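Re: folding output
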Amino acid sequence: MKNIFDFNLDLFFQVITLAESYSKLVHNLLPVARDSTINVRNLSAEFTLTFKGLNDFLSDLRSGKEDQPTIEKNNLPNRETAIAYIFQCLHSNTYSNAIKYLRSARSLWPDDFGDEHNEIDVALTIFYESLKKTHTAANLLVILHQNPPVADICHRLYDLNLKILSSTPDSL
């Protein structure tokens, strides 16, 4: 019977293998996306820029460099209008307004707009879904973090492994 350490070690190597496979897949997909004979629209650059902009703005909010956006419930008559406003703000790189509308929409429709811990994911999903509607003739390709360093993955897995082992009861 395997003990918890052997199980974690197996999981560790499986995740490293998965990360390496993902990197190879991305490496193989990018040339296909650049081929003009195939109808693929690569939106990776736009999404990376949007991800970075949202992340920087939210970091500035947390550190106090930016003021908290004011929630405006009156400007959002329905869910579709909220999504359109958020998309327009993301598309024009006005991240403070995108977060303002996202938080306003969440206050009106909490089940549809996530929570404060996944604002970037919700905003990127809205961005993707809206772009998908405008690019109906093309297949969309979006890749964030194209080549994560294996050393970074190993370090994160090591930290996670330590947390798991420290929370495991001694009886296992």
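--- second protein (sequence, then structure) ---
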Amino acid sequence: MTKAALEHLTRLTALEVAESGVRVNAVVPGFVVTDTMLYNFPEDQKSAMEERFIASAKKSQPLGGGLRMSAVAKSIHFLVSDGACSITGECVRVDNGCHLAVPEGTIRESEMVNSGLYNSRPTQERQAGKKEAKDEHSGNDQ
């Protein structure tokens, strides 16, 4: 099943069972360092390989690399707790912010497309540019 299909299934199922008070959510983990990843490495190399996995993940995870299953389990624990009593139909990403990041070296800031939702320039700088453009425009009308 694709990720989009799972997200859609989560929302539809949440709608169907909401009347009975059942909550339906999905947890979408990112890159997780597990013992299984290290299983085939010799014992004397496991620690070094784990550090390599974590270092690699740090490049794409704003909150740092090394997401562990315990973090995923804590998220699931929260979703089944009373603290999440009004959360349903959600797909919660547990990935140290990986879905927010552009991997290092993938794209230069000058090549980024600004959707308008994210402004890379500080607000004061943008406002000063707008004021200058407005002044130039109003100067041309006179």
